[in-house]
Amino acid sequence: MRHQKKYLFFCTSMLTLAMTSQASAAVVSISNDHVSGSRSDIKKRSAKVGYVTPHTKKNALPVGKGEEVLVSTQRAAFGQGRMQHVGVSTTHISAETLTRHQVTDVKGLMNLAPNLTIQPQGGSSNVNFSLRGVGLKDFTSNNTPSVMTYVDDVALPIGFMAGSAIYDLAGVDVVTGPVGFSHGQTVTAGEINIHTADPTKTFHYGGSEDLATYARSITNVYASGPITHNLQYRIAGYTQQGGGFQTNRYTGQSLGNANKGGLRGKLAWQPDEKTNIVVSANWMQDNSEAIGAYNVLDNVKHTPTYTNNLQTAWGFRPDFLKLIGKSGTKKPSYNNTFWGATVNMTRDLGFAQLASISSYQQMYVHNLMDLDATPYAIYDDQINTNANMFSQELRLSSQNQSSRFQWAAGMYYDRTQMKSSFFNDYTDSGSRPYVQRTSYKQDQQAFSQYGRIRFAATSKLHLIAGISHESDDRSLHDMRTKRYNTAIYTTHFDNLYPQRGALTNQFAGMGGIEYQVLDNFMLYGNIRKGFKPGGFTANNTVIASQLNPTKPESLLAYEVGFKSDFFHHKLRVNTDAFWYNYHGQQILGLNVVPNYGVVGQYVNIPKSQIWGVEMEIDASPIKNFLLHQHIGYERGVYKNFNSIDSAAVTAHYQKTGVYEAFYQSYSGTDSGIPKLTLEGSASYKIILSRNWNLTPYIDYSYRGSQLDVPGNNIYRLPAYFLMDMGMTFAPTSKKWSLSVYSTNILDRHYDMTRDIGLNGFYGIPGTPRMVGGRFSIDL
Question: Could you say which DSSP state residue 306 is in?
């Protein structure tokens, strides 16, 4: 009862504060069909329904019966004013913020949104996602992720593709909870929508040069403008060099220097006033040095303890390099190529808008890593993955935004073909004195249909419902594991496994309510049911049972929240609470293979739960002073889960020389997701004169500890706190700017991820303190 009184007092206080503040925005009748979309699409939709954009002048626009939007210039300080009238939890990251944090791939987003985790898979260029504790640690990148990444409305379901370079951005939106009711694919955790800049109808060009310690440089250039009155272009390029901050503890050599770049071209054509066609093509090459590991615990060679996580080591046997076609290679390295093309067409049909998005993406990935972080051949690894993906989406959505009834319906198809091989050199491991190769091919295709409606029961009350159906069919074939003879191992092992298939055919649905209590205060709630297809464990396979597919996972999500703006939009407070019932959660578990050891294998957890709260606070108490704070708190617990106790298995092996499975019940055990995440910033624009200004800023983030494998604290990723500081000098025309900064100014040594490599535990370090400067021009 005491907690209920506190909650009632809190709600009453918030409503009282809302009524006393003078609101200048009314209810906006919107469909929320697309949280994602290109910048030009957002502007077009804004013009139709009265969304607030930075270019909207202060006036009143008719929206619907009894509704109007009164736009205030204060709203532009926080941005995304339109989303204040949408009942979904979304984090918008502006292009300015992305530049300030040197975000050149998706890993840089992790500390910019609450309850978001994006980590490299070992030392590879593959990335794994988790949002609100829902995610899959996929070391082979052949399974559908729980968090789907979109680039300009194109889904990238492969971790290597999603982790490639991003540049020339318009912004990023992180959407939480089950999605797929109004576009794209159905997944359980949410989506990351990356929007790249579109062609412009006036000529613009610009670029930036960013130089920092460890000889790191980041260069961006672009040009955009008209070719004819109905044809525009945009060309953008990017390159990153240097930045290697790791040191070989035995030789003193550096590791981690980047050597990558990319190009993107876009053509926008309007054959008539109702049609817009955008054709884009992209290419990216990454020949960087791989990130190195460091030993948290070495159970094989018992090498000396590492003094800090910036130390690493490596060493590849010449015979192994010859086998994988890398003769002469000295360091862990990447050799990745990505390219593709997309055609995005929209057509105004009068009663509705038709959208068609066609895309083809190709990748060639070659990653050479030393995951034992020693000069020995204990866990040296080469990954080769060639994959291509074709997707087609057709979407029809209502045009009349003043109508009380709005809708969207569409179909999505994707087909992925993958060919992979994994080489592991275990020669010096003692227990596995050989080189092992696992190879396979995987074919996957999915077809989904979705529909969403939004009904304005009154001018303030909106009801939302959605449904989706997806059929995912994938097969694993030509699966083979082979061991190569070495000087001390001559036993023949060459297994070809039978083809395996996995078919998922399920429905998802959602229902929600939005109530605009006041012009500047909205309450919302929704229930969503999402699912993710099953898949395969496709690496290091030595027995056929490892290829048994995982079952689909499903998530029933409950969410309530409010969105508010106070004091003439000088204070924005958005809060939500969520509760997840998780069935069949897919997780990277463990399996014990007799006479071989512990191997990773995907398993399903029958039942688990996750709950949490999130709060976003934006404030501008005085002119030119901006404060931003994100708070995320979450807890997860396994309700029914029995798993291999890897510590007991290792202890038994060290004592007896025999691998034997030991199980432990983790029912009621905390799932190990980071409990607290914080992200905040403060900036103040100092007006030096009529023509010049100076903007100092400070950013910070905190991330709680993480434990991916229950019951083994060696895996635990310690909590860490990061702080950045900088200052930008620019003319009021904003045609150029000069910035100086320091990231991780406290020089915290932290780990991005921890994992196991043949009875040794290793960590992947985060970036230490870097000091740099950036010059940008935008004309």
Answer: P
CB 591 within 8 A of CB 524: no
What span, in angstroms and rounded, lies between the C-alpha atoms of 635 and 316? Answer: 42
The closest of 64, 71, 60, 66 to 25, measured between CA atoms, is: 71
pLDDT in tens, 417-439: 999 999 999 998 887 889 999 99
* pLDDT at 340 exceeding the cut of 90: yes
Beta-carbon contacts of 27 under 8 Å, excluding residues fewer than 6 positions away, are: 63, 67, 85, 459, 460, 516, 519
**CA separation (Å) from 760 to 291, 299, 302, 347, 380?**
18, 5, 9, 57, 12
What's the full length of the chain, in residues? 779
H/E stretch holding 447: strand 435-456
Strands 500-518 and 461-484: antiparallel
String of DSSP letters for 484-515 = E-BTTB---EEEEEPPEEEEEEEEEEEEEEEE
Beta pairing, strands 147-151 & 190-196: parallel
Q: Characterize the bridge pairing of strands 736-743 and 720-731.
A: antiparallel
Residue 59 scores a pLDDT above 60: no
Spatial distance between the Cα atoms of 308 and 763, rounded to a whole number of angstroms:
11
What's the pLDDT band for 43 if we cut at 50, 70, 90? very low
Mean pLDDT of the chain: 86
| Token digits of residue 368 | 């050479």
In this structure, are residues 569 and 612 in contact, taking their beta carbons and an 8 Å threshold? no
Q: Is a pLDDT exceeding 60 seen at residue 20?
A: no
Q: Is the dihedral of CA 708, 714, 716, 717 positive or negative?
A: negative
Instruction: Collapse the DSSP code of 76 into the 3-class scheme (helix H, G, I; strand E, B; otherwise coil) and give the result.
Output: helix
- How far apart are alpha carbons 602 and 433 in whole angstroms? 26
d(CA 83, CA 171): 14
Alpha-carbon span 625 to 753, nearest angstrom:
36
Q: Give 57's contacts (C-beta < 8 A, 6+ positions apart).
A: 71
Mean per-residue pLDDT, 309-326: 93
Mean pLDDT for 291-303 is: 81
Handedness of CA 695, 96, 167, 704 (dihedral sign): positive
Among 637, 639, 644, which residue's Cα sits nearest to residue 673?
Answer: 637
User: Residue 20: CB partners within 8 Å, gap ≥ 6?
Assistant: none
d(CA 645, CA 648): 5
| CB-CB contact of 504 with 534 (8 Å) | yes
Instruction: Report d(CA 661, CA 706) in Å as an integer.
Output: 25
Within 10 Å of residue 520's Cβ, how many Cβ atoms?
24
Helices (H) and strands (E) in the chain, counts: 6, 43
CB within 8 A of 504, min separation 6: which ones? Answer: 470, 471, 472, 473, 531, 533, 534, 552
Q: Are 365 and 397 in contact (CB under 8 A)?
A: no
Identify each DSSP E strand in 249-320 by its residue range.
Answer: 254-255, 258-269, 275-286, 294-298, 311-312
Q: Which strand (E) or helix (H) includes residue 207? A: strand 204-212
CB 340 within 8 A of CB 266: no
This prediction has a pTM of 0.87
**Pick the residue with more confidence: 374 or 265?**
265
- Residue 452 pLDDT exceeds 50: yes
